[in-house]
């Protein structure tokens, strides 16, 4: 029997819960908790009380509260789909109770827009000694992109040398400006300085200053900008043969113009300001004004294309492949009432959890996705709504 406790009841969690609920062979009992219990109740009503057994309010910034909840529910696995700020308190609660842990985004401190694995990797010995497992970044990127890299290294190359992860949302939600997942986390991510790995060191660029126009399968040519994304950090660690590793995300002109204005007037700042006698953080206020990402789903058209270009050597010859998925916003809405960015994150969280629970991916300690055999995960992507394809490219599409 397997019992999971999911923390978080936002856009991503809604997809994971619905997918888990359909798979009683992997998830016998599902429990749900979040800061706002009414969101959990709404999801429980949608999915059915036979599948989501009970819901709870929890403040996951508080490790002791999470620990008390774990002691009540006694899950085999805790799936963290709250925000990156809660990763460490939840990991502390898992350590205290001897519970396995999974998340989709690496820890970042609330008062500093900096995301890196050092904080979570620091739990390696503690998790190992306790005999429990943490699986980090089981979303799409990070997540599936790490698994694509491991799959390419296993089946297509003797050694991999160049990696370019590309993330295109070619969809149209009809809003002037909106983010597809938590606006605070998303805007903190894309306004950071760019960073990529080359010749054994990290190199920095000004935010969104390096552009390539790339042709995305079933979407077309889109302006793509170099950014830092967390999976680069673990992938270069686990594939030391990489000479260069970069991440690119597409943005339209309208999106970038809005972002520029919001940044220019200080609305993306995380420094608190005084407003009518109280402290407010401009970015938190902006989040309250922007559409809830879940609300974009109805009427959203077009698709995403996220994938990994890899160049390396096989039998002495250099070659490039592209492994990718297209995900259609409208099809996701029809299936689970969500848009494709929530879907592409929520499904891999379910798959990572299923592989942990049935022991296919197991081991004490803190793990990144590319450290396990990619094949069972790739099979489940095909079975559960995120089919992938591999293209052999004549040459790399990047000019630089
Ligand atoms: N790996 C990927 O591909 C990828 C892509 C998109 C999003 N993500 C990650 O997925 C996670 C969820 O994103 P989302 O769009 O669903 O966000 P969301 O804002 O819609 O949902 C977050 C949920 O966490 C809850 N929460 C926030 N603070 C809490 C606290 N202190 N205690 C308990 N619950 C709390 C909120 O109430 C909400 O239900 C984020 O960590 C995000 O960074 C990963
Ligand atoms: N998987 C991504 C999701 C973000 C998609 C970003 N693209 C922007 C582009 C919007 C536009 O140009 O209109 C988006 O918000 O969809 C991640 O890991 O961060």
UniProtKB/TrEMBL annotation:
This protein's record includes keyword Aminoacyl-tRNA synthetase: no
Keyword Nucleus: no
Keywords in alphabetical order: Oxidoreductase
Pfam families: Sacchrp_dh_C (PF16653), Sacchrp_dh_NADP (PF03435)
Transmembrane segments: none
MF annotations from Gene Ontology: saccharopine dehydrogenase (NAD+, L-lysine-forming) activity
Stretches assigned to the Saccharopine dehydrogenase-like C-terminal domain: 139-386
InterPro entries for the chain: NAD(P)-bd_dom_sf, Sacchrp_dh-like_C, Sacchrp_dh_NADP-bd
Saccharopine dehydrogenase NADP binding domain mapped to chain residues: 4-135
Cleavable signal peptide: none
Gene3D superfamilies: Dihydrodipicolinate Reductase, domain 2, NAD(P)-binding Rossmann-like Domain
SUPFAM superfamilies hit by this protein: NAD(P)-binding Rossmann-fold domains
Enzyme Commission number(s) of this protein: 1.5.1.7
Protein name: Saccharopine dehydrogenase
Lineage: Bacteria, Pseudomonadati, Pseudomonadota, Gammaproteobacteria, Alteromonadales
């Amino acid at each position: 029997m397997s019992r999971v406790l999911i923390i978080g009841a936002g856009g991503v969690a809604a997809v994971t819960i619905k997918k888990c609920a359909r798979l009683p062979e992997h998830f016998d009992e599902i429990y749900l908790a979040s800061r706002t219990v009414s969101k959990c109740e709404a999801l429980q009503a949608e999915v059915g009380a036979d599948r989501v057994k009970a819901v709870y309010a929890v403040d996951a910034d508080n490790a002791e509260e999470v620990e008390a909840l774990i002691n009540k529910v006694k899950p085999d696995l805790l799936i963290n789909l709250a925000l990156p700020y809660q990763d460490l308190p939840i990991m502390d609660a898992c350590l205290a109770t001897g519970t396995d842990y999974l998340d989709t985004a690496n820890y970042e401190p609330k008062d500093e827009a900096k995301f890196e694995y050092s904080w979570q990797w620091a739990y390696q010995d503690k998790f190992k000694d306790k005999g429990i497992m943490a699986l980090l970044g089981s979303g799409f990127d990070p997540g599936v992109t790490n698994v694509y890299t491991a799959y390419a290294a296993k089946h297509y190359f003797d050694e991999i040398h160049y990696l370019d992860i590309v993330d295109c949302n070619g969809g149209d939600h009809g809003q002037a400006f909106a983010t597809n997942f938590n606006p605070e986390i998303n805007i903190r991510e894309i306004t950071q300085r760019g960073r990529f790995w080359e010749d054994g060191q990290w190199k920095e660029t000004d935010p969104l200053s390096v552009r390539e126009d790339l042709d995305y399968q079933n979407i077309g040519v889109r302006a793509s900008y170099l950014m830092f994304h967390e999976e680069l950090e673990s992938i270069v660690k686990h594939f030391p043969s990489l000479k260069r590793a970069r991440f690119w995300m597409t943005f339209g002109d309208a999106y970038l113009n809005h972002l520029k204005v919001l940044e220019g007037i200080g609305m993306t700042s995380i420094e608190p300001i005084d407003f009518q006698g109280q402290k407010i953080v401009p970015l938190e206020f902006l989040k309250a004004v922007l559409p809830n990402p879940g609300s974009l789903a109805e009427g959203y058209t077009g698709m995403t294309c996220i994938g990994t270009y890899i160049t390396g050597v096989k039998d002495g010859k250099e070659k490039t492949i592209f492994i990718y998925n297209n995900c259609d916003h409208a099809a996701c809405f029809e299936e689970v009432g969500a848009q494709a960015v929530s879907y592409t994150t929520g499904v891999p969280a379910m798959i990572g959890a299923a592989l942990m629970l049935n022991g296919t991916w197991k081991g004490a300690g803190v793990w990144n996705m590319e450290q396990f055999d990619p094949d069972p995960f790739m099979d489940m992507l095909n079975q559960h709504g995120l089919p992938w394809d591999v293209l052999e490219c004549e040459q790399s599409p990047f000019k630089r």
